[in-house]
Amino acid sequence: MNFAHAAQQALILSVLVALPVLLVAAIVGLVVASLQAATQVQDQTLAHVPRLLAVAVVIAASAPWMAQNIARFAREMFLAAAM
Question: How confident is the model at residue 43 (pLDDT cuts 50, 70, 90)?
């Protein structure tokens, strides 16, 4: 396995691992911003707390999947380096 292929796989893996968290943060942020615009409540705490809680739930729920993919990639890289 050459370096360019390994780097490409690492970048794809990083996007796949980060995607669920980023999607949830964006969706919750959009919903909260819409509610704030509709109610004209512009409290910064109200904007950040729901997003923080949603991201924490997604990280907790998808942590085993993330760790499994990262460990698989690391194992593949170590095996490729050993050959």
Answer: confident
